[in-house]
Amino acid sequence: MENKGNYYITTAIAYTSGKPHIGNVYEIVLADSIARYKRLLGYDVRFQTGTDEHGQKIEEKAKDAGIDPKTFVDQVSETIKGQFDVMNISYDKFIRTTDKNHEEQVQKMFKKLYEQGDIYKSEYEGLYCKYCESFFTESQLVDGKCPDCGREVESAKEEAYFFKMSNYGDRLMKHIEENPHFIQPESRKNEMINNFIKPGIQDLCVSRTSFKWGIPVDFDPTHVVYVWIDALTNYITGLGFDLDGNSDPLFDKYWPADVHLIGKDILRFHTIYWPIILMALDIKLPKQIFGHPWLLVGEGKMSKSKGNVIYADDLVKYFGQDAVRYIMLHEMPFAQDGTITYEIIIERINSDLANIMGNLVKRTISMTNKYFDGTVSRQKIDNEFTKELIEKVKVTTHNVESKMDELRVADSMDELLSLFRRCNKYIDETTPWILAKDEEKQNELMDVLYNLLESIRVGAILLSAYLPETSEKILAQLNTKVSTYDDIDFGLVDSYKVTSNPETLFARIDEKAKLEEIEADIEKVNVKVSKKEEITFEDFSKVEMVVGKVIECVKHPKADKLLVSQIDIGGEVRQVVSGIANSYSPEEMVGKNVVVVINLKPAKLRGVESNGMIICGADKKNFEVLELSKLPIGSEVR
Known about the structure:
Largest sheet: 7 strands, parallel
Helix content: 40-55%
Oligomer: single chain
């Protein structure tokens, strides 16, 4: 195959704070489909992804886990890699920002920017979101909270180095105007220009002193390099870039990148900060930065704080690898957020994959076996239906390429699905089961089946970019090696000898049974994710809990769901009102040694005063009080 040239595609590197959900993994699958398609066309592709491993949040999480930060990120990086691998991602490079070469180059770049006057030391005072590791002004907040994640921000003041971004604003604007496809989609470009560039680019904080887990500034080791110079430069250090001029040949071969594929929430950092850093270092800018939309569960962005997270490995367990790839790629419009639910997943698998694609392949191969013992050849019998089908194959190849040139992956998949629909319509139009009854129509019947097999072959070649395993299975069942993009034209296979046992590519799913299976698994392993703001150890230490014995318990006189308990907490009896009457009778509570919060401010519940709280576990239906049987009454619980 002719080499079409080099093609370098990258994704944002995943933050090693924990296991990535499918909203994170979607980006990697999207990039994988683009990389696979470019390889199919004959490009020499370099596909890079990886992990972002420094920062305050990671330092804190490692401390909470009782391990050092490097051990923590080693573990999480492997978890992230596992989530990518379960989706059959064909990356060429998995970079980690703790890689020795990356850290060395970041230090060199920081020092050069400082020495040439682009970086200066000052003091930062403002608002900081530790979850996003970003600073904001008061005007940038949304309802007083972080505009990116919606969590609380805190005041911060510390010595820091700053990058004079403002020196490069006009040059960046000129580059955007002269390269209209530099930021895509168009709506994202307008957002960056109107909201951030035209109002004036603010200088960027590029070092921190309030935590230590980062790349040290070698000429001022009380500072560590802040996330953006560290994380963004992975796109060149992953190619072996060396500031001193000793770069790996990969850098000259693949840079500038053809596309940085990123989430829309980090577009500002990639379209403003990153180009300016490259300008200051006199390095060419990437050709395009594409900000993809979010993958939503129901109507909301996936977030562990919202408790609506779905993981890729769980979906693959329920539905299979290629089915999940299909959902991720097909349900994401070009510029708008995409929505998935378990019901949508099942509907798409049943309608698109089982009915349209899978049924077509199995039905065609089964008829080929039934009528011709699995062997057919082209008869070139012209009719209106055949001409339309062959034209559809040609148009599909062209349309898929056109859509993929614009990174409209979901639209390109629709083109493929349209071809398979047309094949099914061709079966209805030509009625092979009727032709089979007429001895004089055997050549026509053979031609119909050949045309179907050949259309499926072309479709399977294109499908390899999106559903690689399914593509392989189809081509194996067709028993053909004519499967490269050079073989994409209709009619290149003279005859077929198909498998005698066609495989079901996608089985139909019983929605009710599958949802019950998923719900049962969720209930089995469900760990409640906090939907509230994080608290410190100091905050938690304010809660005073002791072991108490319930010596008397009655129903609340005015509320069926409440019980009123008298609890001996060691030298004192407290009255506590609890909403546990649906799970316990008064008689069942008497004699239990329970955990009681004793420093709650007294409150009246339906007219009865409560001076504490009984600690309980709860699911959707029931409560279970926490009992301690060995500790004496009044023992502190902590």
